[in-house]
Amino acid sequence: MHLAISMEEAVELIPDGATIMLSGFMGVGVPDGIVHALAHAGKRDLTLISNDTARDATGPGPLFAAHCVRKLICSHMGLNTIVQAQYASGELDVELVPQGTLVERIRAAGVGLGGILTPTGVGTRVAEGKEIVTVDGKDYLLETPLSADVALIAARSCDYVGNLAYMLTATNFNPIMALAGRTVICEPEEIVPVGMIPPDLVKTPGVLVDHVIKKTA
Questions:
Q1: CA distances from 61 to 82, 161, 200 (A)
Q2: What is the CATH number of domain 4-113+145-213?
Q3: Count of H-run helices and E-run strands, the chain
Q4: Domain ranges of the chain
Q5: How many angstroms separate the first and last alpha carbons of the chain?
Q6: pTM (predicted TM-score)
Q7: Contact 53, 83 (CB under 8 A)
Q8: In sequence order, what are the beta bridge partners of 187?
Q9: Which residue ranges of the chain lie beneath pLDDT 70?
Q10: What pLDDT sits at residue 79?
């Protein structure tokens, strides 16, 4: 883990054209500060991996409003009108992935697997162009791992060595995405001394975290 960095330094670590993972579920558990900072910086041609697009002004919404995203990989985009318009116009390339498959593809990248086998999507459009593997007479789709240049995650608490704790449903995709980003940037609500987070509440060990965004007034 590196020392805590400013929001401006975090934004500089994400170049145009990067692939980023963004945690959250319908705006809950999203690192909102860096989302807005990236939008304000005018980043371009990002590939975004996220469970959903929330609504126009929440979650990853500001990135679409600022036209930062070129490709989206997600499981749901139906409540964000900006995303719908950009997809309809051809500005945004979208890959829809069943939610369970999405999280397992991310986990596969994080733990070094070559892919996963899932029955979800067999016999549907989801299967188009994908390899089908038969095991014990049952067909499965071979789904490839999903990794990212940068994983942007949110935490309730972070200690001085980067151990992270999350709060309730805000946990969602954060621990899994922290496994699959080549660089992991966390935006915690608080940074506390080592020992302040009970060991059994640590869901992401500090060895996985590269940078922590320090709060400013």
A1: 8, 31, 34
A2: 3.40.1080.10
A3: 6, 11
A4: 4-113+145-213
A5: 24
A6: 0.94
A7: yes
A8: 154
A9: 1-2, 216-217
A10: 94
